[in-house]
Amino acid sequence: MKRRGQIFAVLMGVLMISGCSSEALQGEQFREERYGGMHQNMMKGQMNHQMQGHMDHDNVTRLEDSTGTNELLIPPLLERDENGEVTYTVTAQKGETSIFKDAKTETYGYNGDFLGPVLRLNKGEHVKIRTVNELDEETTFHWHGLEVAGHADGGPHAPLKPGESKTIELDVAQEASMLWFHPHPEGKTAEQVYKGLAGLLYIEDGQSEKLGLPNVYGKNDIPLIFQDRLFDENKQLNYEMLMNEDGTIGDMSLINGTLNPKLSVRKEKVRLRLLNGSNARNYTFKLNNGGTFTQIATDGGLLNEPITLNEISLTPSERAEIIVDFSNVDPSDQLALVNEDGSTLLPFHVVGDEGEESNIPAQLNDVTLTEEEKNLPVTKEVELFGMMEHVTINGKKFDPNRIDFTQKQGETEVWEIYNKPDMMGGMIHPFHIHGTQFKIVSRDGKAPSENERGWKDSISIKPGEKVNIAVQFKHKGVYMFHCHILEHEDNGMMGQIKVE
Ligand code: C2O
Ligand code: CU
Ligand code: CU
């Protein structure tokens, strides 16, 4: 019943907007204007559903094409601290960023004005990270994808007040991968990420370097953090005004914080490490000439074998590493990375020079789903349901004082994640578990696609879909599991597991 009311409210909004001019809209009105297109699209989707039995929730605001005027910013590699025992210092701070030529945007960043540097950790080392909060509000430091003890995981139970700092310690035991870090304060994650708190965490293991893959940071090994943003009329990230309960979707595409980026490459194989760092938008990446590329890694490590693809989809917080071969690409080809809706995300500027020799070996890793894991019974059921602020897991909203599940350290259990459709069809929920890299056992009873047969910490779950995953925790503690549409997470689509 409540949902009918919402549809009605949205419909009324659309009707009202269509009658007013787009000039000089302010505040609420401005927000309504910017969202008009999306609401209309959603309405179309909802009407489709009534008629065709499914809801097309992906029909969201198209991203503006990148004009390619700015060279892509490459996040700096964070230097290790010189003295003492702390390896790295990470400070959350406020800043100002020239995203647009003619304005300064108020932003948040780690050790800088916007986004963060790359932290590089080596498998086998003991690391201390000093985290510092220089914001005017509480924050936490969460290491997404890192297998770390609960007390160092930086979930909502570990807030740092303004001015506080805390040093965490961990042993790096997982394989080469690109993870990331972001804040996780209760109810405020979406806003803090939106303003710019997100950074990358690379794990190196000495093994993967021997494979001969493109590996020169910033040259033929490029991180790409994809984020969509809405800016207000003053070119500010006015989250309170622009936010959407169902996930804030923007019309401007930023990559590594760069608006209208282009990437200059040489004639060589280039490894692109993709992170969907958006609050809610799903991407399907393609090359504008329909050409193929090679996926070599998932969220938590290399795939066993390289997989040839001509598109790859990532829901919020998912990562993939792909290799695009520019050896025979000509500048006049105007090759670009595009999104499913055809919008140009990243034009490539191919310069004449030949680059490094690199190759893609046929065997990259050895991660397999064992017979035992395939045959384990389902012992945890997770039901994702709802939209807008009415999102739940197993019918409940997040309660920091409630433990939803327990699991034994080092024991593998199969979790079945079910996205329960509602009367309007439903939407994709990206499901994430803290403190572990898991394997997909099956999607609706079938083996996962080849490019999902690797370590994962976030997975997309379509409406009506059931995904079974084999989950093991290496450490003890309390961990979150949640939908990684950040507004859903903040609205309580999150539970807790205690590993003991
Ligand atoms: Cu990206 Cu709860 O995390
Ligand atoms: Cu996480
Ligand atoms: Cu969700």
Description:
By secondary structure, this protein is mainly beta. Among the domains are: 51 residues, no CATH class; 129 residues, Immunoglobulin-like. 12% of the residues lie in helices and 37% in strands. The strands form six sheets. The chain has a seven-stranded mixed sheet, with no helix packed on it. A six-stranded mixed sheet has the order 1-13-21-20-15-18, with no helix packed on it. Strand 2 and strand 3 form a beta hairpin. It is globular. The N terminus is likely disordered. CU-O-CU linkage binds next to strand 6 and strand 30. The site of one copper (II) ion has 4 residues, from strand 6. One of its GO terms (molecular function) is copper ion binding. It comes from Bacillus aquiflavi. Pfam families: Cu-oxidase, Cu-oxidase_2, Cu-oxidase_3.
Helix content: 10-25%
Contiguous uncertain segments of 5+ residues: 1-56
Number of helices: 6
Rg (CA only): 22 Å
Look at the helices and sheets and give the structural class. Answer: mainly beta
Number of extended strands: 31
CATH superfamily of one domain: Cupredoxins -  blue copper proteins
Average pLDDT over all residues: 89
Q: What hetero molecules are bound to the protein chains?
A: CU-O-CU linkage, copper (II) ion
- Gap from first CA to last CA: 42 Å
Return the CATH architecture of one domain.
Answer: Sandwich
The main pleated sheet reads as: 7 strands, mixed
Q: Strand order across the biggest sheet?
A: 12-11-10-14-19-16-17
What is the CATH domain class of one domain? Mainly Beta
